[in-house]
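Contributing new complexes? Match this layout with zinc ion.
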Amino acid sequence: MFSPQEVERYSRHMLLKNVGVKGQKALLESKVLIIGAGGLGAPAALYLAAAGVGTIGLADNDKVELSNLQRQIIHKTKAVGSYKTESARQTIQEINPGVNVKTHPVRIQPDNIMDIIKEYDFIIDGTDNFPTKFLINNACVIAKKPFTHGGILRFEGQLMTYVPEKGPCYRCVFEEIPPEDAVPSCSQAGVMGAMGGIIGSLQALEALKYLLKTGELLIGRMLVFDGLKMDFRTITCHSPNKTCKVCGNPPRITDVKKNAALYTRSFCKL
Ligand code: ZN
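Output block (do not edit by hand):
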């Protein structure tokens, strides 16, 4: 059971009827994978660590750059040049030594994603490019893993959660990877650092609610945040899209390795 230090550490959770001692125990026994230890993954990892999620996986093969520090708050100036997974692991353990951190310092690809996601209960997509977002979606649908999608650009952010057999997947909504020049990246167009804090923290909250089996997740709803207007909206996504290539009937994508060519950019239907 809980040590006196754990009771004190998690006391504000335990006071919540949606968490309590039972919920806190469930969090300590849970495993969450964060893909991308950057603008979204950094705040998500900090809140999951502080919340006492027992195992946090971090998948990223990048090293910390000075230009990351404006928003990727898990990394310190002294970490510039080191692997993001290692830098994030150190910060997590300073916040909560009770958390087990598993690092995957690799680029997520069709040939490794199924092996990496299989041991986790929930996945957070903190990546910044469409091919990887589509890959994460396809792998999670095939492996029946819940995940939350997040995206930020400039002062805009969006969020949606997929739970197997409960609603549409990311591909139901976006269908195809947009052409390379259709949507600029954060490195091209810029991003307000605090946007990562908002959307990444909401992703952590979705993961915690899923693990605690409480509240209403963003299933079949896309949350869109305009940081300039300070406006949150949720758009209902028709669920699920029968022609979806991965969760439609019959699905065209049933194996992420075999269907790797389907991640190549085609055309934008948005
Ligand atoms: Zn779908």
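Reviewers usually confirm one structural detail per submission. For this one: The CA atoms of residues 157 and 225 lie 5 Å apart.
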